[in-house]
């Protein structure tokens, strides 16, 4: 069993003597925590893993200066556009407001980390995995074990480890790599990082293996509130709302403060724009979650009923459905309602990629009078989060489309904001 006792932070003998970084520490010689996620995970699950690791870094900073290195974004399952240029090595600043992130925990981009390093080296990599034998009871534990799967290769010539490293596989190497079987929360990694390594840069791979320390508490919501989208993406979404959906923050009561730390809302403070927004997840969900996903015809029926109930004449659709299915949906909805879908310009797609277009969809959905999502979709979950932050009545947020065969149709769990 690995040593997991709490110890005071100790500088390693070969720590570099760098200037104080801009993240607000009054320290020199910070340590850097990097992380990565299973390549098959989607954009919104990756956002959730960021939250787990950000809380870990916040806790590490109680014992010494650590900086979280943000993993560049690369092509994901839903990022399939061929006319947007490369979807590799995308920095977080493309999608998120880094100043806002830094108000919770100090962060830098991966390319900034490389610029600060004397060599393109990550000193230690720990690849997290589940226990081969499974587990009978829940108990937090971690052990160094043989790798069940090892995505890294040992280069005999350089005497270093080579791997994907966020698309920098030809440039970045690691000095040490070990596999660790772990069962526990993200915070359980803290004593290991303090007691078992003095490396200046440490990477946790497969970080989704560890869980949230406390899901839904005030700290959870602090890091979630800090994850504001980039100002430019918000502006694009706001312009679309104003032009097509008669939606403006002042009249919708959805004005953001300059800093998330100064914003505290009550349920019902936000009114939202005069439109219904729906996240209609299709693609693989039609096959793997057949019992949860309605037919296009039944989805249209539910949307019309909800729009009539709330006296809304406009319906905004965020969906991964092909154009044919979207047109079918519009046909079933009919001319009683105006149906909209965000169509990015070529410039927006090339600059902000598929991930940015998805964020604009989420931002527009977050400002609707009424939101309806898809069951078990992280895309819908994140919209619900945004609406909690803005101060919507939960009745107008935690709704989902139902399969026509689902007689009970349980609505989403209400994870309400905590301050």
From TrEMBL:
GO CC field: endoplasmic reticulum; Golgi apparatus
Entry EC number(s): 2.4.1.221
Chaperone in keyword set: no
GO molecular function per UniProt: peptide-O-fucosyltransferase activity
UniProt keyword list: Carbohydrate metabolism, Disulfide bond, Endoplasmic reticulum, Fucose metabolism, Glycoprotein, Glycosyltransferase, Golgi apparatus, Signal, Transferase
Keyword Transferase (UniProt): yes
Reactions accelerated catalytically: L-threonyl-[protein] + GDP-beta-L-fucose = 3-O-(alpha-L-fucosyl)-L-threonyl-[protein] + GDP + H(+); L-seryl-[protein] + GDP-beta-L-fucose = 3-O-(alpha-L-fucosyl)-L-seryl-[protein] + GDP + H(+)
Principal location class: endoplasmic reticulum
One matching Pfam family: O-FucT
Subcellular locations according to the entry: Endoplasmic reticulum; Golgi apparatus
Gene Ontology annotations of biological process type: fucose metabolic process
Metabolic or biological pathway, per its Swiss-Prot or TrEMBL entry: Protein modification; protein glycosylation
PANTHER family in alphabetical order: GDP-FUCOSE PROTEIN O-FUCOSYLTRANSFERASE 2 (PTHR13398:SF0)
Similarity section: Belongs to the glycosyltransferase 68 family.
Protein name: GDP-fucose protein O-fucosyltransferase 2
Organism: Plakobranchus ocellatus
